[in-house]
Amino acid sequence: MKKHHQDIRDLIYIHLNQTDQYVLSYGIEFAEFTAAFSGSLNHLLLLKHGFDDADFNMHTLLDYCPEERINKLAAEDVYSYGNFCWIDFIEDDVLNELTGQELAELLYLGHQKQHLKLPFYNKLGNRFVYLAHDDGWYNKTYYRSFKDFFHLLSEVLAGKLGDMKLEKTILGIRKKREYPQVNKEILLSLTPFIKEGICISLRDADHQRGRIEIPIWVIGDYANMDDMVEEYEQISNKPYHAKIIFDKKTKEWKLNVI
After folding, report:
1. Where are the domains of the chain?
2. CA distances to 5, 82, 185, 210, 234 from 138, in Å
3. Contact between residue 251 and residue 52 where contact means Cβ atoms under 8 Å apart
4. Could you give the CA distance from residue 179 to residue 157 in angstroms, rounded to a whole number?
5. Tell me: the pLDDT tens digits for 31-62?
6. pTM, 2 dp
7. Alpha-carbon distance 109 to 47, whole Å?
8. What is the rounded distance in angstroms from the CA atom of residue 100 to the CA atom of residue 86?
């Protein structure tokens, strides 16, 4: 049974497909994605959406979100759109240069969440293709460079940990604790596992006095996230395959592979 999207925030599933340049994920939402690339995202051509404040392109007959309205879009409940799919592009004029064939490929992407050919278009200059169903529940994101994916993951892990561990100040106000990004070298060294499909579980994190240990299980390749969650519930009682550790004293991250 699919849970409400509030429940997905403390578990991350990622499966990296190197050949086709995409990552399947669960637990990473559009608002987190835009925060990680704050200031560096271009306009978004909206292939499937429910955003009321979009502009319209006559050539493609598609809506798009200008760069300056991305934060407004990110503040929406995009989970409630159901399907939410977009491809970024550098400037307005390039949309008018898309051929019928290219437009057909883009429409197919938004409709099937699969590519006919690798979806990186020089004229669009896109870094990403973002294909989500119930945003955060099932996301398939194409990356021109996987450096962007590892940047996203390092930001998201630190951000989620901060959201979970809200500290009370003297006045009783709950304050978010800031954690440094997880160093990319640590995440890069997890690549062989990520290619198999892993769960990083903040809900199972062990908060000790001097450190926080976040367990990782190699879980396999899932396109159906109900099945993935079911498998996680089985495997989470078993020994983990690795853990990411935050040392509170040195404020540094390290990796322990079992």
Report:
1. 29-135, 168-257
2. 11, 10, 26, 35, 20
3. no
4. 9
5. 999 999 999 999 999 999 999 999 999 999 99
6. 0.94
7. 8
8. 18
Q: How far apart are CA 191 and CA 176, in angstroms?
A: 30
Task: Tell me the pLDDT tens digit for each residue of 203-228.
Answer: 999 999 999 999 999 999 999 999 99
The residue among 165, 159, 197, 207 whose CA lies nearest residue 181 is: 159
pLDDT of residue 178: 87
Phi, psi of 11 (to 5 degrees): -135, 130
Strand partners, 243: 215, 256
First to last CA, the chain: 32
Cα–Cα distance measured from residue 112 to residue 53, given in angstroms and rounded to the nearest whole number: 25
Long-range contacts of 121-125 (CB under 8 A, 24+ apart): 121/87, 123/94, 123/97, 123/98, 124/45, 124/87, 124/88, 124/89, 124/90, 124/94, 124/98, 125/42, 125/89, 125/90, 125/94
